[in-house]
Amino acid sequence: MLAALLDLVLPLACGGCGAAGTSWCRRCAAELADHPARVTPRVDPGVPVWSLGPYTGARRRAVIVAKERGRRDLAAPLGFAWAVAVSRLRRWGELPAGPLLVVPAPTRVRAARARGGDPVTRAARGAADHDRRLHVHPVLRTTAGVRDSVGLDAAARQRNLAGRIVVRAGAVPRTLPVLVVDDVVTTGATAREAVRALRKAGFRPVGVLTSAHA
Predict the structure, then answer these.
(1) Are 73 and 66 in contact, with CB atoms under 8 Å apart?
(2) Does the residue 23 lie in any domain?
(3) Closest alpha carbon to 85 in 207, 170, 209
(4) How many domains are contained in the chain?
(5) Which pLDDT score, from 0 to 100, does residue 133 have?
(6) For residue 103, what are the domain limits?
(7) pLDDT band at residue 163, thresholds of 50, 70 and 90?
(8) CA of 152: how far to CAs of 2, 156, 169, 187, in Å?
(9) How much is the pLDDT for 171?
(10) Which residues contact residue 39 at a Cβ distance below 8 angstroms, ignoring those fewer than 6 apart?
(11) In this structure, what are the phi and psi dihedrals at residue 72, rounded to the nearest 5 degrees?
């Protein structure tokens, strides 16, 4: 009864195309489930970067509504797509076959609070629901002084983040290879700083996986 009442107030719509009656339609699921492909950002993070496809269509809309409109339910399809991508990368020999430490790219505390949490971390945990060899630890954070990167070019993004991504204190195993995950890779500046911070703290990053590349 409660679900039916909520549907009347907030009509169910696909997070990828807006189609009514479903939170995630088959067509968008097929589009998101593209093979992970190696991409080359303008800023080299020092590890391979894989993307599920261009930042267009269902991928773009899903990222936007998950991030800006608080669609928590999209963590499930986004996470499942990452789990499938990891499985393929393992099968192709591009990722280790054993356990992986999955580290979400950091988001600004104020931005995460405004969004009701971090959609990248939610999607990472959604991926771990499908693969018990994935161990999610959001160990990265940004320090004071990082501003919104929208509209910044590659050089400005690097200056904005330089030295401002750090590893949180805590007991996290440093023996496992690390896969950094993010919703979109644009210039590669965030991935580079994330990898730098992880290496400085004694972790072993082996790659970056994103839902889309711009």
Answers:
(1) no
(2) no
(3) 209
(4) 1
(5) 97
(6) 34-213
(7) low
(8) 44, 6, 30, 10
(9) 73
(10) 49, 50, 51, 185, 213
(11) -65, -30
Asked if residues 30 and 191 have their Cβ atoms less than 8 Å apart, the reply is no
Task: Average the pLDDT over 96-125 and give the result.
Answer: 83
DSSP-derived secondary structure for 68-104: HS--GGGHHHHHHHHHHHHHHHHHTTSS-SS-EEEEE
Residue 110: which residues within 8 A CB-CB, separation 6 or more? none
Q: What is the pLDDT of residue 188?
A: 94
Is 197 in contact with 164 (CB distance < 8 Å)? Answer: no
pLDDT in tens, 7-43: 444 558 999 999 998 999 999 999 988 899 999 999 9
The whole-angstrom separation of Cα 127 and Cα 121 is: 10
- Structural tokens at position 211: 């839902």
In a domain, 29, yes or no: no
- Global pTM reads 0.86
Distance separating alpha carbons of residues 56 and 36, to the nearest angstrom: 15
| Residue 133 resides in a domain | yes
Q: Please determine, for residue 122, whether its predicted confidence score (pLDDT) is greater than 70.
A: yes
For residue 179, tell me if it sits in a domain.
yes
CATH of the domain at 179: 3.40.50
DSSP state letter for 175: S
